[in-house]
Every structure is written in C-alpha cells, then in structure tokens.
Design goal:
The protein is α+β, with helices and mostly antiparallel strands. It has two domains: about 5-80; about 85-190, no CATH class. The protein is built from seven helices and five strands; from the N terminus they run ααααβααββββα. The protein has helices spanning about 5-15, 20-30, 50-60, 70-80, 105-115, 120-125, 185-195; strands at about 85-90, 130-135, 140-150, 160-165, 180-185. A five-stranded antiparallel β-sheet has the order 1-4-3-2-5. The radius of gyration is 17 Å and the shape is globular. The chain starts with a helix and ends in a 5-residue tail after the last helix. The mean pLDDT is about 90.
Amino acid sequence: MHSPELESFLADTLQIPLGTAHHYAKDLRAAKILSVGKQGPYGGAVMTETDCVNALLAGVIDHKYGGDGVAENVRSMRKLPAEKGPVQWPANFTNGLTCFGADNAGAALESILRDIRHERLAMWAAGDPWRLSVTIESRGGSVFVSLTKTAMRHETDTRSAIHGFARPGYDNRPRLVERNVTIGGDVFLQLAAKLGPPDG
C-alpha cells in the first residue's frame, strides 16, 4: 500500500475530505513521520504500520484552524504513557498479544496491526468471536484499547481487557464535555490486509 491508497482509505473511513487526508499526509512527511519514496509514478513509499497509525491519528484528533500542528499533535498523542496497566479478566486474558504490553499509545496501536499481521490475534481468539475498539479523546488527552470475547460461556462470563494511555493528571481534570472517537476493530483488520503479510 502506498500513501495515496492510505489517504483514500482513511478519508472514506473517517468521513473526511480526501484533500484533508492528503494535507495531513503532506505535513507528516515534512515532519519525517510518514515514509517518503522516490519521485516518479512508481517511486511512492510503501506504507508501514507506523505510517498507518500516524495517518490515522492525524485524521481523528483536533488540530488548530487551518490544520497547523498536525505532526506535533500526532507525536504528542503517540507518547501518551500507559496507565497502571491492562485491566483484564481473567488475569491472563491477553496472553500472546503484544498490544496490551505496550508502554505508550503509539506502540499499542502499531502492535494491534502487528498482532493481526503475524496472526497472533487469530491464534489468541482460537475461533471465538471477539470485539476490538480504540477510543481516542479528540483533543489528544487519552487513548483506550478495549478487547472482548463476545461469546458468553455462562451468565457471569466477562472475558475482557482494557488498556489506557493518558496525559499525567488527565483523569483529575474536570471535564464538562468530552469528545471521543471510537474506531472499530474492522478498521485495523482492513489496514492490516492492505499492508499485507509481514516480510519473512
């Protein structure tokens, strides 16, 4: 997948103008946080997991009027540190998945793609239906990754996990209004499919 395909996918998925997605990608390339290829019709850079996450974050978080500060906002959100650790039940629920061991938000989102591409998520699911979602506070304050196995074996079956990342002190600040964007697991499945199988 090259940058134009990624821009088109995110514009359609996030319901933003294609020109806006292109503008974000241009800013990310200028800041050296989106891969740059050679000039020419066949010289475009092949997108990576990092590229996908950076472009996705650029598309969902708020920016200053006119789109300034896109790369700075993406960098800031990627660095959001993990809170105390994944909250999960049972305790070993996410064993085998790297995304729930990440130390910051950027690493967690990349690891979701990596777990899909390396088939770790499929092996973890073992045929059970599952639901993944990522909830992003649009002003860049927090990211929450949630994973649940949806087939209940009994009434008290609560197989689920959540991993939070937030600015220090974020939970202590009074907020009368919150604006969140929730990204379904299918978006990550489609991005992983576009990236293709991992090399080697």
